[in-house]
TrEMBL record:
This is Aldo/keto reductase. Residues 16-306 form the NADP-dependent oxidoreductase domain. The keyword Oxidoreductase applies. It holds the Pfam family Aldo_ket_red. The lineage of its organism: Bacteria, Pseudomonadati, Pseudomonadota, Alphaproteobacteria, Caulobacterales. It comes from the Bacteria. Keywords: Oxidoreductase. The keyword Nucleotide-binding does not apply. It comes from Caulobacter hibisci.
Length: 336
């Protein structure tokens, strides 16, 4: 991992594969015991991970507390990223991109993390009731105040990126990207490259589908995949056909499916930085093994062919959640 060339993220250089911390506290069933999460975070840093990604939303703030508690004493070893706009008000999830809400959310995040500044602070989603210029303006003032060092956007379009970047330089755009999820290829990945913005790919192993983690719709209580159209029947059975072919291709080349998916993601551009998440130290070590994998053009083409056409059925999100997503849709997702 340490021998792989670093990638530029705003004013920082980071290892090519970061760590998404969400599922240590949130989203995929019961989270692991806190001590296991702390062990995994420290192991990630030991292995050369230099980008840790959390958010106010994750575990209602508990993920930020976990990160601060586990690796706060190693603050100089990593770039710390968190997010605002999506947050929790007690047990209620809220979306508020107003400058006042952003400022308050940032202060709470700083307190939970136990730090005086956050390296990269994202607008987690676009609040369509607030001009993005106003939301970015609040972050720009936080940069001036020394509370954050760089600004990011999450799940937003190339058009929104251009508007935000005109107010203050954007260091990173975070969006879902993997061999199965190609929405960034419509416009925003290219816009990031043109503007010098890092593209941070979350769910680069397709929420476990490309890591051997999903074989049926028998999800644990609290697993968000249980309401995601691609992960439930009848779509899941159809989608697993391409997944099994992908698994076989990985085996042909001495890779695990997760390693093939991550190597494919890394190959999409020097500005692309995947941040897979995991609750397993063994899977963490497996994922990081992809950093040194160089895929041939022939293998990349075979991966692309596996997921072309009708290979993947179902939208990424149900309609209610999709309403909060500003990323471009693929042609087959657009309803006239």
């Amino acid at each position: 991992m340490k021998a792989s060339p670093p990638r530029k993220l705003g004013p920082f250089e980071v290892a090519p594969i970061g760590l998404g911390c969400m599922n240590l506290s949130h989203a995929y069933g019961a989270p692991p015991p806190a001590e296991d999460g702390e062990r995994l975070l420290n192991r990630a840093l030991d292995l050369g991970v230099t980008l840790l990604d959390t958010a106010a939303l994750y575990g209602g703030g508990n993920n930020e507390k976990l990160v601060g508690r586990a690796v706060g004493h190693r603050r100089d070893d990593y770039v710390l990223a968190s997010k605002c706009v999506l947050d929790m008000d007690g047990t209620r999830r809220v979306l508020d991109g107003s400058p006042e809400a952003i400022t308050a959310s940032l202060d709470r995040s700083l307190q939970r993390l136990g730090v005086d500044h956050i390296d990269l602070f994202y607008l987690h989603r676009l609040d369509r009731s607030v001009p993005v210029e106003d939301s970015v303006g609040a972050l720009a003032r936080a940069v001036e105040a020394g509370k954050i060092r760089a600004i990011g956007l999450s799940e937003m379009s190339a058009v929104t990126l251009e508007r935000a970047h005109a107010v203050h330089p954007v260091a990173a755009m975070q969006s879902e990207y993997s061999p199965m999820v190609r929405n960034p290829e419509v416009a925003v990945r290219e816009a990031c490259e043109r503007l010098g913005v890092a593209f941070v790919a979350f769910s680069p192993v397709a929420r476990g589908l490309l890591a051997g983690g999903v074989t049926s719709a028998a999800y644990a209580k609290g697993d968000i995949r249980a309401w995601m159209p691609r992960f439930v029947e009848p779509n899941l059975t159809h989608n697993l056909i391409a997944v099994r072919a992908f698994d076989a291709l990985a085996g042909e080349h001495g890779l695990t499916p997760a390693q093939l998916s991550l190597a494919w993601t890394l190959a999409r551009g020097e500005h692309v930085i995947p941040i897979p998440g995991t609750t397993s130290v063994a899977h963490l070590e497996e994922n990081l093994g992809a950093a040194g994998v160089v895929l041939s053009a022939e293998v990349i083409a075979r991966v692309d062919a596996l997921f072309a056409g009708d290979a993947v059925r179902g939208p990424r999100y149900p309609a209610e959640a999709q309403a909060q997503i500003d990323t471009e849709l693929l042609p087959e997702e657009v309803v006239a």
